[in-house]
Amino acid sequence: MIGVACKPTERETAREFFELFKTPWEVARRDRQYRVVLSTVGRPDGIVAQQLLLYGATKQATDLRAGVTVERFSGVTEVEWDDLRFPLYRGALFFSGAGPAVLWSAGHAVDYRGRADDASVWRIGYDLFDEVGHLLTVGQPPSRARTPTLELHIALLRHLLLESGMSFVEVPPRPAGCDFICCLTHDIDFFGITRHVFDRTLAGFVVRASLGTLADVVRRRRPLADAVRNWAALLSLPLVFLGLAPDFWRPIADFARADNGRPSTFFVVPFRDRPGIAPDGGVEARRAVKYQASEVAAQLKAASADGNELAVHGIDAWRDAGAGREELAELLALTGRSTAGIRMHWLYFSADSPHQLEAAGFDYDSTWGYSEAVGYRAGTSQVFCLPGTNGLMELPLCVMDSAMFFPTRMALPRANAAKLCKEIVSIARLWGGTLVINWHDRSTAPERLWGEAYRTLLEEIQLNGRVWYATGTQAVQWFRWRRAIRFSQEAAAGGPVEVLAPPATQAGGIARVHRLVGGRVELRDRPLDGPARIDL
Fold it and tell me: Per the structure, how many domains does the chain have?
């Protein structure tokens, strides 16, 4: 059992951190004795511990007693730990004259070890919960997108606990028998090219399918086979509009083939011709779409009957709970369910969005990602509770096709995109969590033809077969199950731990015991689907 001492304003963040690092902890108490106490407020008065982990980016009394030189760095800095690197966004302390360190930044030590009275002290020169709070609210800039920073904070704490001689149990963020959860999601912004008569969308298609495709072939950004498909689609347009040839923008059917029996989550637009309000208060007319969910009810219900999920592609829900309730009701009229997930169209979001979405009645959000990068805006791919809410979950978006391929965004050649996706998949295998992919409705069809890139990504995910493909709701439900697990320990300093896990309604989990034995980390896993007793 880890004792935790922090500022009252950090309590919510501390609780969320220990839902992500699912291990026994409690607010440090004076009537308990602890093997390890983690503190962001210096050495806590009256708390007895064998090992103190003192985080903090301001000078503490411990630093004065240790006689170390302290230098405050207020900007963003990168920390090196073994062969890993991660950014600190809220400042750090550099220590000198304190002996060996494991954390370094630009040649400066960011930690040191010592003693204070009857306790060992490990001083870490940044504020853990301040960093975590920043990641879950502000997030990382696109330049840092590929670093799972929050997971590295968790990994560092694991290391500190083991090096402090503490054995502990953890419930990792992965279902039993799986490396990670994969959610295949699709934003449906268009539903048939025949809905676009003499408009901007049709004009853009004609230009890109003709001259744009020719230019891509000349620059070797497209194979000739793609050009043939685009030009054939362009020539077929008159027949398509006359009803003599099939419409080639048919997202439900296309992804039924592409996903090949794997469940998908379709984010569908509730109302046509509504652009909504932009974050700057203006109106972007081109944000409006030309279909709404009720107009394609038959196709959507058929997709749902095949095991797929329907969710809301929101317009104004991010800024107004009343609009959110209206958008949610439009979808629920089709599904007959009591709630649904949401992802905002154009990924609109603000600091107040969690409160508005929760008030509207949504089960989860999946907007927290990048439109211009691939990776981890919150520094993690785990489902987390949006700060300031009573339980609205965030299913963070990780990989989006338009971010990789649009000319005004990353504009990656296919080989480079495949390499990037391979890196992201390897991170998912290492740390677990959810790999949320968003491939848009037109992306497998002319003129984009990003279907081959999608197949390559799915093949990479499937390499070892240890993946659970889940809808957004299923992934969120699994993390809610994990969050419901509680730990009980009779004596805080050691002894058996009761893992109070409710029976799993879908995939279960594992309880992992960490020990440092003879300088080596020893791991023991056991299946977890209900209460368990773990001996430490």
Answer: 4
